[in-house]
Amino acid sequence: MKERSRTTESAYILTGPATLEGEISIDGAKNATLPCLVASLLTDEPLHLYNVPDVVDVRTLLEILESIGVKVFRMEEGIRVQCETLMNQEPPQDLVQKMRASFLLLGPLSARFGRARMAFPGGCQIGPRPVNFHIDGLIALGFQVNCDEKGVTVSGKPAKQSEYTFPNVSVTGTEHLILTAGLIQGEVVLKNCALEPEVVQLCELLVSMGVDIDGIGTKTLRIRGKKYLRGSRLTIIPDRIETGTYVIGTVLTRGKTRLRKTEMHFIQALTEKLEAYHVDLYKESDALVVDATNAVFDHPDTVVTEPYSGFPTDLRAQYMVLMTQLEGKSTIQENVFPFRFNHVYELRRMGAHIDVDPPRASVYGPANLYGATVRATDLRASASLVLAGLIATGTTRIIDIHHLIRGYARMVEKLQALKVHIRMEPADLTLQPRFSSVHTS
Ligand code: EPU
Predict the structure, then answer these.
(1) What single DSSP character describes residue 28?
(2) Which atom of ligand 1 is the closest one to the Cα of 34?
(3) Nearest by Cα to 263 from 84, 51, 438
(4) For residue 89, what pLDDT band results from cuts at 50, 70 and 90?
């Protein structure tokens, strides 16, 4: 039996204050990789993905795919996934419950093999995360869906013509129905779709596999699937949230960094804000340069999180750390995950002055942060604690970093390259299998 990947609970030890200086490469986007890997279920031909980040969520999804019969080849330059036959229509519950994106398998498996069953998914602790849009969407597409206390079974033949309007914008909800529609011979119309770059990349992948999609990058998609799709090759887009995290880290520490292999336009909602604080952001040959050496934090800010192209909820915890350094009272309105504020209690232990009344928070600055032992509670919360550690005086110990390594590749290595005194506590990730050859830095 194959050994499942372990996430050893470990800690980062970080000594501040630091100034980020130097150059790193940004990895491929975790949230683009996950649905693109699931697209391998739509064809018996191989799918080659490049620029795949070596993060735990990707490893977990690869394990889930392997557990149902998908062949995974880790190569120097990327990953090849191929689903010729299925060993099992029900991925193991323990793996499925490790990550929410595993729910993406349900529709594609039913569309290709006629039936699928999934446990309800797990994921980060960021408040309630229902899957009702996924289920209602599959029903609207014509499938039979039966839910019980443990999971969902999908069967039956989809309709030739169907339409579903998302009540609210949902990223994986949109991706799930796009993937499923890829094998439906007929027309599926999806309305109020998510516009995230990761959704656009998934559409482009499916088009290259033979699906007709009108309206890519808009809120209404018209999808005409095929019975058989072909294999394809795709380079995953840069991770905009990883990019934004290092941009905020640079600004926070008034540093200057070159971020290679990334794009500025994906994080416009962030960069527009930073210009008001005299941060220079520009493209120079193959890098995004962030020059915060003349940054002035002389006024507060307001952040309202929204679906793309609004300010991303996945950068909000990190931006909140910057707010602790802004003069005056900054405010946050969290519109995507109203209860995503667990990190605030930890930031307060480092000296931050923050009031929370979900979905709103007020941050009073500037505050002198100091090192403390703090607990990572979810992926982006963990990143915010690392950023706080950069400006804190003394040593910050961040425990439970297994949340962080779900989505950030080699963060310790990258921060060390940016001249930060950070290390991992001994019982670390060396226990885990890596496919690190796909990365450059
Ligand atoms: N929602 C429902 N019902 C559903 C689906 C969503 O009510 O069936 C609600 C959610 O509760 C939330 C809102 O709709 O209030 C938006 O959730 P969405 O479905 O867009 O989130 P997601 O697809 O589960 C993805 C990312 C998250 C990111 C959100 C928002 C992946 C694998 N995950 O989650 O990423 O925060 O979109 O942009 O793509 C992360 O990377 O740290 C992360 C949490």
Answers:
(1) B
(2) 32
(3) 51
(4) confident
